[in-house]
Amino acid sequence: MNEYTIEEIQVGMSASFKKLITKEMEDSFRVITGDENPLHKEDDFALEISGGNFKGHVAFGMLTASFYSTVAGMYLPGKYSLIHSFDEISFMKPVFVGDELTVNAEVIDKDEALKMIRLKIIIKNQDNKKVSRAKMKVLVMK
Q1: What residues does the MaoC-like domain cover (predicted)?
Q2: In-domain check, residue 82
Q3: pTM above 0.90, yes or no
């Protein structure tokens, strides 16, 4: 876990990490949220409604988006983070069990007076295809 203070963070700093999406992650997320939508657990349903374009059920978009929290809490700034808001968040492609996601974050703005940074984050799958992106404001508490 990084421990960047607002003084240490500079525009252009970046961080990256990988996450493999597993069935256990999906099951845990389902228990936490109570989301039982068949799109997220039934391969046949997902194939039917996608016209055969999906390779199985779709992982929860918000499971993918939970890695935005990992960016702030572990990397930029790390220990002293408090997510303030999202300027944008979008999901471009579905994610499936077995996908390996790469999360790339970059500091694109810094306001020392407000102790706030703005991050641009892009999540890509193992085929280097963007699956999600966001711009997020994070308070740096120290």
Answers
A1: 20-114
A2: yes
A3: yes
Domain region containing 118: 14-140
All residues at 6 or more sequence positions from 102 whose CB lies less than 8 Å from its CB, including other chains: 16, 17, 18, 123, 124, 125
Distance of CA 120 to the CA centre of its chain: 11
The tally of domains found in the chain comes to 1
β-pairing verdict for 130-140 and 116-124: antiparallel
Q: What is the pLDDT of residues 83-134, one digit of tens each?
A: 999 999 999 999 999 999 999 999 999 999 999 999 999 999 999 999 999 9
64 occurs within a structural domain: yes
Relative to beta strand 81-91, strand 130-140 is: antiparallel
Q: Which residues pair with 109 in a beta bridge?
A: 118
Distance CA 96, CA 91 (A): 13
